[in-house]
Amino acid sequence: MKLELKGITKKFGSFVANDHIDLVVEPGQVHSLLGENGAGKSTLMNVLYGLYEPTEGQILIDGNPVNFNGPGDAMAAGIGMVHQHFMLVPVFTVAENIALGNEATKAGGILNLDETRTKIRQISEQYGFQVDPDAVVEDLPVGVQQRAEIIKALVRDAEVLILDEPTAVLTPKETDELLAIIAQLKSDGKSIVFISHKLREVKAVSDLITVIRRGKVVGDADPNASTTDLASMMVGRSVSLSLDKAPAQPGEATFMIDGLTVTSPTGQRVVDNISLQIAQGEILAVAGVQGNGQTELTEAILGLQEHVSGSIRLEGKELVGRGTKEIINSGVGFVPEDRSVEGLVGPFSVAENMILNRYDQAPFAKGLAMKPALVAQNAAERIAEFDVRTQSATAAAGTLSGGNQQKVVMARELSRPLKLFIASQPTRGVDVGSIEFLHKRIVAERDQGTPVMIVSTELDEVLELADRIAVLYQGRLMGIVPGNTSRDALGLMMAGMGAEEAQGTDPARTDPESGDK
Description:
The protein is α/β, with parallel strands linked by helices and 517 residues long. The protein has helices spanning 41-48, 71-76, 94-99, 114-127, 142-155, 172-187, 199-205, 227-235, 294-301, 324-329, 339-343, 350-353, 372-385, 402-413, 432-447, 459-465, 487-494, 499-504, and strands at residues 3-12, 15-25, 30-34, 56-61, 64-66, 79-82, 160-164, 191-196, 208-213, 216-221, 253-263, 269-279, 283-287, 308-314, 317-318, 332-335, 365-366, 369-370, 420-424, 452-455, 468-473, 476-482. The strands form five sheets. It has a six-stranded mixed sheet, with helices on both faces. Strands 16-19-20-13-21-22 form a six-stranded mixed sheet, with helices on both faces. Strands 2-1-4-5 form a four-stranded antiparallel sheet, with helices on one face. The chain is globular, with a radius of gyration of 25 Å.
């Protein structure tokens, strides 16, 4: 089936998310859409899948114009989509999820899942999915849940399969398995639209790459193109993808976690007896698939979790039991994973956001009165230092791009002497050029002698920044390994294997560390 998009434009008020986009997906082709978060890739695919109505433009299948009034129309036309956040009901079985919306019934209106189970087994056998039709979705690993989503599309006879950021929640091993599945689907004549911002995966899987920037197609590229060339197309200028950093010169271990456990309101241990240390002048990266306790770990350090046991000490002082403001004032800088919700006050100005953690302290305040001139002076200096692209310091922070919002948060946290710096997902939703800048600032903070903890689900970022790497799986620490540990070994640890065993199965083994220095 040949799919064509002609002049697709999608506007939300005055904002143009897609600007006259042309795209052709040939039968049996893996066609990747490459672009930074916010470039318009997902919006375009939501138009194709019938979730959005295009403002302008036309969709053609085998040369014939089609109009989709919803996903049902798109599925009937042979288009399936696997969303970045899976559309599965956790308490239903795989078969129940796949039958949902297309239920077959027996006499008396009783649900008949036998035919659905048969189709699931047939497709699983054909593609090696190994998915049990009667397994409850919430009990399945994330990679298997994704396969269930793919089966859901194939059961409905999809000839074009849209995969939206499909590796965002997968371990490296699960990612490799997905890429093999895509190759098999392609050999079976299916067309794949692969949406991603990850250069390594796009190059590995694509027949053709279309690069989108700020809602427009900026060109097509061959998968043999260099990552540097692709990155330049994504951001519109030359960028460096490698970080030049000197080896760490770690000093005294001044930040220590001992036996830390965080319990959820339901009684589940979301952080399970973790112990680690970070020395002055080193970066410890916490790796793992999203949802394995990373968020709760950082929140416990900041005093944002209620049910905490164990010890967290900074320069010998206990942090457990202290309030968040007291912890921040003790010298902890923190960049949260969701800048728009937890890191910024959108309606406040850039200048005001630059002092959110010190608005009531000298030199920005005296008693109950703030000092506007000093607030403005600080903002001007930080805007210049961190290259924040804004019309003025008085502009609302919420009007800035994602990368510039992140720079505001980083500028605020790094503009005072720190005893510990924590950055969670420091470059999520940030363009390649801003990633380059932010990584350099993180390393510069390390080189000033600050203990640094980075939490990231991006394995490339972990390997780029880390002096040591701690891997979490289901709230437990699988081990702490050197920063040059192989991707394969880290992938095994992210799937629940201990550090020594994971490195022992890796042909490029690096000697394990105990983790504490």
